[in-house]
Amino acid sequence: MCNQRGIIWTITGDGKGKTTAAFGQALRALGHNQAVAIIQFLKGSNIYGEYRFLQQLANKQLLIKQVGLPTFVRKNIADQIDQDLVLRGWFLARSLIETSYNLVILDEINVALDYGLLAIEDVIKTLTTRPATVSIILTGRNAPQEILAISDTVSIITNGKHHYEQGLMAQAGIEF
């Protein structure tokens, strides 16, 4: 007998494709007529192709929100506004987890946790007490061990080789 319930899936590591994998799952869920919510932490720009495309599709079954500045945030230079935006996104995420969404994607939340912009205890409590039908995908580098421990599935994306190392810069449609 196979139990069916929502899962917690963490996609982490230093390789390319964490957000891409999560968004692929969003498309799969939408294809099964499931409701999907995506919160992109530390991102606040419409340069991201996946955001632009899904924003066009947004309806009662799909919600996508960015909570961040349009600049890249580094661990040592994150400031109060970055933390305020992360907290705003987390409050939204918590409310979405408690509503009628089947899948909630917390894109780059692991980075927000790694940077100390969000209390891990609150995240753990919310994830472990969520409604049984809700699946959660957490993405971003440096997932805390506490997140890995409560995850049903952990995917670690490694960097075997990256074109950036060859001097090729980020390209629209590939990296963003």
UniProtKB/TrEMBL annotation:
GO terms for biological process: cobalamin biosynthetic process. Pfam families: CobA_CobO_BtuR. Keywords: Transferase. GO terms for molecular function: ATP binding; corrinoid adenosyltransferase activity. Transmembrane segments: none annotated. SUPFAM superfamilies: P-loop containing nucleoside triphosphate hydrolases. PANTHER family: CORRINOID ADENOSYLTRANSFERASE. This is Cob(I)yrinic acid a,c-diamide adenosyltransferase. It comes from Carboxydocella sporoproducens DSM 16521. The lineage of its organism: Bacteria, Bacillati, Bacillota, Clostridia, Eubacteriales.
